[in-house]
Specification:
150 residues, Alpha-Beta Plaits, five-stranded antiparallel beta sheet, 5 strands, disordered N terminus
């Protein structure tokens, strides 16, 4: 009997909490209340995926990668970017599966800098392909803006 009463009390409590959360959420959407989170700025995001294998053998060394960042990437995005390390796999032109270490650069830029930033990103991509004899550098442009708070 005590267990049944406890279950009923728990059910009623959760139902009331859910109704309160729903009401507060509706107020936020209707503009009747401030949102719980601080509104950030809208930015666009592009990611570039760099394979580090060099056709014919070898890898882009850490020193070569650092030099590429200093000479090519940083001058175009001096305010910053994110570097992620990983490993990837793709099928080359001949059909062979290639596994290799990789780097991913993540860029965030404002709407007013969208056209200029995307052109700079393409310059970075082209420079890497040329410098390290790559087939390509994968580029992912997020079509919707993301909200960013600093």
């Amino acid at each position: 009997m005590k267990k049944a009463i406890s279950v009923v009390i728990l059910f009623v409590s959760l139902t009331l909490q859910a109704q309160f959360v729903r009401a507060e959420t509706e107020k936020c959407f209707l503009g009747e209340s401030r949102p719980i989170f601080a509104e950030g700025e809208k930015y666009y995001r592009t990611e570039l995926f760099f394979g580090r294998s060099i056709p014919g053998g070898g890898l882009v060394s850490d020193e070569q990668w650092s030099q590429f960042l200093v000479e090519i990437v940083t001058p175009r995005f001096p305010d910053g970017f994110t570097i992620l390390s990983g490993s990837g796999q793709y099928r080359d032109k001949s059909g062979k599966i290639i596994s290799e270490p990789s780097k991913v650069l993540v860029f965030l830029y404002s709407r007013k800098a969208l056209k200029e930033s995307r052109a700079k990103i393409e310059e970075i991509r082209s420079a890497y392909v040329k410098k390290f004899d790559q087939e390509s550098v994968l580029r992912v442009d997020f079509k919707s803006s993301v909200e960013v708070s600093f």
